[in-house]
Write a structure and sequence with these properties.
Oligomer: single chain
Distance between the termini: 97 Å
Largest sheet: 9 strands, antiparallel
Number of strands: 24
Strand content: 35-45%
Structural class: alpha+beta
């Protein structure tokens, strides 16, 4: 009877190494796969004007592959950019490779020495583009994970193809996203059109070069915006088109019934201009001077005048310049109109007969110059005249 416990004890002792081996095996960490890390800046590269992305593939702490993407000013006299993407050969701590720039087709040579210093990284070496050699001496660089990098790459051009109304986007402001190889033809197709093109949007940014798409900003009379968008959406290479943010600020905007301000399906702009000028003349204690509608943008420029008190003996004139924009309150047909009116810009002129004083606007002066002034409650006065509503930003409703 005592042999059985001894047998069990023997089995337990004999199997102990097996259990120990199984336990050790369960603790062994699985082999880790390759990891992608990014550097989104190399300090001082090209006088700090380069937009850099260095992508490294690592096995543990060892770099197994690297790609250097550099976007930089093509010349010092303009905003034009060029870019190269070089697949680098890894040899110990040395990263080297060649490429050709995208725009100017310049030969590129890269040779960098990479060194980890604590939690940071150091890069030293040379980048040669054409005949220009750039010395690289950058210390204390930090890297990003794949997720961190992708989160930082998210860009928003604000294009809204089908807004429910014009409370978040502006009725005169259009954005068109187009592929880079089709952008020139799209822009040429706008020749002769009653539309203004934002000059700053013509510059091909580093983000555009990397994404392969450029966003063109256009300003158009709100009454023609729908037709312009339809044309843009059908153009080759266009990937998105819609309204974006523009001049309209909701705290200076009213909404009112359209019926009394239309002739057929068109806005009666002369009647509107006369009514707006009449209200502003009262609030600013001035006389209407001129009213001009911009054929491209649909904006109304009003000038009102009154005697200047800056130096009464000279008989100078104080000029109030106000910009206004009227449109339906949403895309398509609507029985409501929106009116936005800017704050007045004030300047002083000599409008007297005969020889005149030549006056310059001195922005450093606290006296009258070309500056923005209070409008004496013009928006509330317009609200009353047009029997309108104002936007409640807290509740997101017209009231």
């Amino acid at each position: 009877m005592r042999a059985l416990p001894l047998l069990l004890l023997g089995l337990a002792v004999a199997s102990a190494p097996a259990f120990a081996q199984m336990k050790l095996q369960s603790k062994a960490a699985p082999a880790s796969g390759p990891e992608t890390r990014y550097f989104t800046s190399i300090d001082g590269l090209m006088d700090g004007n380069a937009d850099v992305v260095l992508k490294e593939t690592r096995q543990g702490k060892t770099v197994t592959a690297a790609v250097l993407d550099v976007c930089y000013p093509a010349d010092k006299s303009s905003d034009r950019k060029d870019r190269f993407v070089a697949n680098l050969t890894v040899s110990g701590q040395t990263l080297s490779g060649t490429a050709q720039s995208v725009a100017d087709k310049q030969p590129v040579t890269v040779k960098l020495n990479r060194k980890q210093t604590g939690d940071g990284f150091e890069f030293r070496g040379q980048i040669t583009i054409g005949q220009t050699v750039t010395e690289v001496a950058s210390t204390d660089n930090s890297d990003l994970s794949e997720k961190e990098f992708q989160d930082n790459q998210a860009t928003e051009d604000g294009i809204t193809p089908q807004p429910k109304d014009f409370t978040d986007v502006s009725p005169e402001s259009i954005g068109v996203r187009v592929k880079l190889d089709a952008a020139a033809d799209f822009l040429k197709s706008l020749k002769g059109e009653a539309v203004e093109i934002g000059t700053s949007s013509l510059a091909v940014t580093c983000d555009a070069m990397r994404s392969g798409e450029q966003t063109i900003n256009l300003t158009v009379d709100p009454e023609r915006a729908g037709a312009l968008l339809a044309k843009a959406k059908s153009a080759p290479g266009v990937t998105a088109a819609g309204w974006t943010s523009g001049v309209v600020e909701m705290d200076r905007t009213i909404r009112f019934a359209a019926a009394d301000w239309r002739e057929g399906d068109k806005i009666n702009k002369d009647k509107l201009a006369s009514a707006i000028a009449g209200v502003l003349a009262k609030t600013l204690a001035a006389k209407p001077g001129s009213a001009t509608w911009n054929a491209n943008t649909g904006k109304l420029k009003l000038v009102l005048k009154r005697p200047s008190t800056i130096y009464p003996a000279l008989g100078l004139t104080q000029n109030y310049e106000v910009t206004a924009l009227v449109s339906p309150d949403k895309p398509g047909s609507s029985d409501r109109l929106m009116l936005w009116v800017s704050s007045p810009t004030v300047s002083t002129s000599d409008d007297s007969a005969g020889a005149k004083l030549n006056l310059s606007d001195d922005s450093s002066s606290d006296e009258e110059g070309s500056e923005t002034r209070d409008d004496n409650g013009a928006i509330d006065a317009l609200l009353k005249e047009f029997k309108g509503q104002r936007w409640d930003a807290d509740k997101s409703v017209w009231r």
